[in-house]
Amino acid sequence: MKSEHYIYVVVQGRSAEGSVIISSRRVIRVLVADVNDNAPHFLQSRYQLEVEENNQPGKLLLRVSASDADSGYNSRVTYSLDKHTSTIFNIGPETGQLSVSAVLDREQQGVHTLTVFARDSGSPPLESVATVSIRVLDQNDNAPAFLTPHFIFFIHENVPPFAQVGRVGVTDPDEGENGNTELHVVNSSGPFVVDNTKGTLHTTNNLDRETDDHYELYLLASDHGHPFTLTSAARVTIFVEDINDNQPKVILPSSNSSCQTVSPATIAGTLVTKIYAIDEDLGLNSEITYTVVAPESAQNSSPFRLDSRSGNITVAQQLLQKDLGMHHMFIVVRDGGKPAPLYTTIWVNLLVNESMGPCNLDRVPTWTGTSDLDQTPSKAPICEVEDTRSAQLTLLVGLGMMLVSTCLLMVTIVLYLKQKRKSLQQNRGGHVEENEIPLRLKDKYYSDD
């Protein structure tokens, strides 16, 4: 409060006679010796400042100041930082100037909090503390970054428009508008668009794998930074997965009215014709099998056999006289699609004839069985062909056989009645001779063997 004091002392005296003696004056100077009883005092206990990132190394940040009411060495103040402070920050021990020796990166650390000590030189020394808070301001120094440089998605064909293909993750570590990104589809003629609110890729039209089985496109991500925007790109591959949406197409035979002549001399195992079909689908959806629609009994009696995998039709056994004529095979061509296969049908018409001339059909055969042709072959109904002449011939043959059977039955009955009547007459008028011994019939006879 006050380092020295002055005391004035005046001495006055009187003589014996009572006269006044002139006074004497002295000054006593009292110096108050200092002890270290005051710690340094900061002008403010908390400092706040803002610094843009990407600063020049060695940049001066601010100057802190603390005073000490003591004197001499007791008032001499030095500054230091907490021992846990990052080494990139430095403070002048005498000046209190705070600086940073490295480039600050807001994306690594946005706020730095430092503790500054001010200590005097007394014995023992006294100190005080102040806090410095440094907020690092953002710059647009980071381009948008995709989670991967190449996105791969799979989507079924025939999905409805605006179906989601997948999520395209993109991030920008900058702040505010510097980190606000926007996506665009570029270098693509495919039906795709980006939903920026969700960061997802969507279709705009139906997809058909048989037309395009995959798409290649690029996504461009740009931020809204200042003074200029930053961009980045990512590649996207979209594979269109197959669904069973195509029926098998029969190439051979060319039509249901096609006909082929087979010689009766053809030996068993000979290939006489072939069914060839294709399916535009993929995998199991395109695996084709061929089946004759008839019960096993009818298939076993047919002179022709169909290979379910290759579509080859061969002679199953040596052709006989009964095999002459037209043979109609109603064949279902199925794919292996799940959960239900798709199918188409074809007639294979084979004429067994001595003459190898052209084979012509008066009309296309007609299927008269059930329309449920996607069931298993063993349960499929027998196929019938509408042929008026063959139906009439079958009816006449049946009637003739019934008439012959009736005649044979009547003749058998008449002969039996006549034989029984004759036996009865002999039993009534006959007698046993004197020397004849009736023969007793045994129930069973056994040979010597």
Automatic annotation (TrEMBL):
Q: Which InterPro entries did the record assign?
A: Cadherin-like_dom (IPR002126), Cadherin-like_sf (IPR015919), Cadherin_CS (IPR020894), Protocadherin/Cadherin-CA (IPR050174)
Q: Which Gene3D superfamilies match?
A: Cadherins (2.60.40.60)
Q: What is its main location?
A: membrane
Name the UniProt key words of this record, in alphabetical order.
Answer: Calcium, Glycoprotein, Membrane, Repeat, Transmembrane, Transmembrane helix
Provide any one GO MF term from the record: calcium ion binding
What CDD domains does the annotation carry?
Answer: Cadherin_repeat
Q: Report the membrane topology from the UniProt record.
A: Single-pass membrane protein
**Which ranges form a coiled coil?**
none
- Tell me a GO biological process for this protein: homophilic cell adhesion via plasma membrane adhesion molecules
- Report the GO terms under cellular component: plasma membrane
- SMART domains, from UniProt? CA
Instruction: Give the transmembrane ranges.
Output: 393-417
Q: Where is the Cadherin domain?
A: 43-146, 147-250, 261-367
Note the SUPFAM superfamilies from the entry. Cadherin-like
Q: Where in the cell is it found?
A: Membrane
Going by the entry's taxonomy, the superkingdom of the source organism is recorded as: Eukaryota
Note the PANTHER family from the entry.
CADHERIN-87A, PROTOCADHERIN 20
Task: State the protein's name.
Answer: Cadherin domain-containing protein
- Species of origin reads Cyclopterus lumpus (Lumpsucker)
